[in-house]
């Protein structure tokens, strides 16, 4: 009885079998995903790749026929689920003003004219701290309490000076009366007047010495440090119980309602830096928000080290959104057009050496459109050919469509 030939499953034979199985599985997954995502071909060529030359060919026109000869894909078709997955967003082409300018690095800074540094006028000891870093304070609000020997002496000197002045005043009035009656000598009268003047000077000095503490003067040897302006505590170097001197800055109070934006312009761009020139301002923290204003200051000389020119604009900041130290960009406008068709910068791509956008045909179909650009600004570009007003173009996800287009064009080229 003949035996069936025995097949030995060697390691090499096993590896080959597993490789074939994995390859088959991979092909199945790819085909399934392709069909699920697009419901068919992901990119539609213009009519040259179809046998029928019906309604689609007439819609695309002569421009499409030129591309058909090259076998180049022009329309990306996605299912609704694929559009959502790719986070495709579109915007209409709009007509309006566009300007181009020079971008320069900038930084938000405190307006030094709205900053107060609070220190003690005399040496002493901090007995109480009333505020914390970041607190909002009003002008005249108590910040800290200081105990000072000098203040105690100044406070004690005032009643002494007042008493001495009263004595001198009474003596002068008496000598004046006696002189009138012919009883007191002229010399006595003059001495009394001199003593009164001296007592008055000492009283004025005592009052002045105490008045420097303002309404913060408390009882005994203690007085309060008060905020001179409305603002926010942006710096605090005060600790309970520590000894302080007049040179010590204990608090910084800043009014952030008006801030400076300081930039530096390179030498080749200083022609656009003029006081009163329009300027745009954007921060890294709020990339979608743009502030507008004018230059309030342009330096007269270049920085010798960086070879840049300092420029500055002032911005209202009542909401406190702008924080000192924020990095930003200033754009100096140098050219403008009031009536231009514009699209966001994000809508523009380069493909096959041409500048393109993806025109939204609706129903998940996005057409590759060559466009001719005019003025290019940091946020938008002028389109002088290829689009009409109210056309919709892809702004978010255009790079994904471009990648899909390149992939399908590559596959179409190899198919020929």
Structure explained in plain terms:
The protein has 416 residues and is α+β, with helices and mostly antiparallel strands. It has four domains: 11-40; 55-97 and 338-415, conserved putative lor/sdh protein from methanococcus maripaludis s2 fold, CATH 2.40.420.20; 101-112 and 255-337, Beta Barrel (Elongation Factor Tu (Ef-tu), domain 3); 115-254, RNA polymerase II/Efflux pump adaptor protein, barrel-sandwich hybrid domain (OB fold (Dihydrolipoamide Acetyltransferase, E2P), Beta Barrel). It contains six helices and 23 strands. The strands form five sheets. A six-stranded antiparallel beta barrel has the order 4-13-16-15-14-17. A hairpin with a 3-residue loop joins strand 21 and strand 22. Helix 4 (149-181) runs antiparallel to helix 5. Mean pLDDT is 80; it is low at 1-15 and 24-71.
